[in-house]
From TrEMBL:
The keyword Transmembrane applies. It holds the Pfam family DUF3995. Keywords: Membrane, Transmembrane, Transmembrane helix. The chain crosses the membrane at residues 6-25, 55-76, 82-104, 125-144. It comes from Pseudomonas laurylsulfatiphila. This is DUF3995 domain-containing protein.
Amino acid sequence: MTLLLAQWLVTIFAVISLVHVYWALGGEWAAVAAVPQVPQEGSTKLRPAFKPRGWITLVVAGALLLIAVLVCWRVGWCLPPLHHWSLQWAISAIAILLFARAIGDSELVGFFKEVKGSKFARLDTWVYSPLCVVLGAGLLAVAWV
């Protein structure tokens, strides 16, 4: 069961990583739904909260791929299994970060965000934050089972 869960986790993290590589290389598909939006001053129009740079997006893609590799390493899928306590705690720390992401920063992301009404905010509430909870729980299961 743990191997099946690990395969799903690795697949999800790898796909999300590839989407970030696509964006880093200039891809536009779904980019508007990937960045939080804030109201413009003196207007009801929304603007992106920040402009992600290509190299930072590549760093995020690399971090997501690293998480997939750590999961592979933990369960021995495509790599020799490693049952060291440090890997267990590293995966657990990543899970806690995902739970924190789901809770949010109280303004732009997470279940308790203040800025609502944009495409990103709706997707964050119904897709991104729940996905972070599921991925975090999956990582904890892989780390401790």
